[in-house]
Amino acid sequence: MAFSEILGHQRQVQVIQRSLDRDRLHHAYLFIGPEGVGKKKVALSLAAAVHCSGMRGDSCGRCNDCRQVIEGNHPDVRLVEPEAGKREITIQQIRNLQRMLGFRSFSGKKKVAIIDSARLMNYHAQNSLLKTLEDPPGDALLILLDHSTGGLLTTVVSRCLRLYFPQLSVEQVARILTLERGMGEEEATLLAAVTGGSLGEALSANGKELISRRRDWLQRYLSLSRRDFRAAMALAEDLGRDREKATAFVRWMKDWYRDILFLQMGCTGELIKNKDMVQALGEMAPTLSLDQTLSVLERLERVAGNLQKNYNGRLVMEEFILGRWLNASRRNPQPAI
């Protein structure tokens, strides 16, 4: 939980530590970066450093305050995220948070609120939070986490100090997987590449599942080129039932067509994410023009955006998959684009 345990993001950590040492922390931060790169870990490390009774400017990880932050039960630290079974952060959750921030601190230090996936606050919740951002209690520290500013009100974003957390490099993630999880170098490199530098996903069960799931997705996606309407409907329905699976599929499809784009531009080697599927990539790349590849990538960006906006997942995936099937059915048999 100490800042020294954060992997990567040295510049961002230095900015935070400098402000902490000078007692000049901003009242509200917005940590922006891809999922799984360590934004929440940095936020919790900051909360622990604020309350640590064993040292200044960092956290010891041993004192009672540090243990409470790690275990998620510190009375002056609150993590806000969607409640079980819900897809959004409600105005009632924000009102409860505001009530907590209005109480006197138990420790005599700052009261810290971490809002994970801040874009999931609905419009009313964001408007309610805006009042706290505009006139925060003197001992309040708010930290919003998200992958972009797209789903947040501009007034909310403008009142936060933004820190950007880039993806870790494939080499960094692979080294961590090798040293800490005992993976072989080849397996670690593939997992790091497929998860796009997201350490959180690489360490999760979802990351390992993605390795095997890609081949099934590819086989089913390529079946669209054989004008198999039932296969197209089955794939769309399967993905549409599970938003997380649909999101993972779209993210992988973006990586797939990105790899194709690199091959079309004559780039190989470390830039390719699907390193174990180079033969299939090489077979598909010549069947598409550069404009066609870019067009699919553009469509996939729209699909990803619609899923993030909580549009009906089944309709979103049906529109994309059936659109690819219709396109394939109008052409000679070849990979769908």
Give an overview of the whole structure:
The protein is of the alpha/beta class and 337 residues long. The chain has helices spanning 10-21, 39-51, 64-71, 91-102, 123-134, 154-158, 170-181, 185-194, 199-203, 205-222, 229-240, 243-264, 278-284, 290-308, 313-329; strands spanning 28-32, 77-80, 111-115, 140-146, 161-164. Helices cover 55% and strands 7% of the residues. A 5-stranded parallel beta sheet has the order 2-3-4-1-5, sandwiched between helices. β3 (111-115), α5 and β4 (140-146) form a beta-alpha-beta unit. α4 runs parallel beside α5 and α12 (243-264) runs antiparallel to α14 (290-308).
Can I get a quick summary?
With 337 residues, this protein is an alpha/beta fold.
